[in-house]
Amino acid sequence: MKRLLIATALGFACLSAQAADMAISAEETYAKIRQAEPDVLFVDVRDPVEIMFVGFSDAVHANVPFMLVDRSRWNAEKGVFRLYQNPDFAAQIKAELEKRGMNADAEVITMCRSGSERGEPSAAFLRANGFPNARYVVNGFQGAAIKEGPQAGLRLQNGWQNSGLPWSPKMNPEKIHRIDPR
């Protein structure tokens, strides 16, 4: 029993170390992009519909959704449309890398709205599927929600938007994930 507890504790410690190793701040990410570091691919992993209403940073190289919205299936319990994992996510990331002359060892940095819903899971998924240097932007695009006060629930702290980094309410049609013929 004692060995099982020790093994479990070590397993959690390894997972925590991996999560910390995968995390990168919005500012650090932007510095890498501004310095045009080779072998860095910065990917917005939000569904384009979310981007349309929340905003976009042209600093990203591409938008490859990790989770997609199925607007034909309503989740009555949560009051939202069903999300499902993009079955082509890893292949689409690989294609974006190849388009830029990079391989799977490149640093792939993912960014979602908050960092925890799709950012961290997408980076972990990529690491488990042959992209050993995948990372995610902590606090994502919008940042964390304020917990108390008149603005409670609003995402007004940290993250890409709240760090003064470049973003726009408009999407770049050349970078956004599209299924229509261009």
Automatic annotation (TrEMBL):
Signal peptide start-end: 1-19
PROSITE patterns associated with the record: RHODANESE_3
The Rhodanese domain, residue ranges: 36-153
Record carries keyword Signal: yes
Residues that span the membrane, as ranges: none
Record keywords: Signal
Keyword Protein biosynthesis on entry: no
Domain of life: Bacteria
UniProt protein name: Rhodanese-like protein
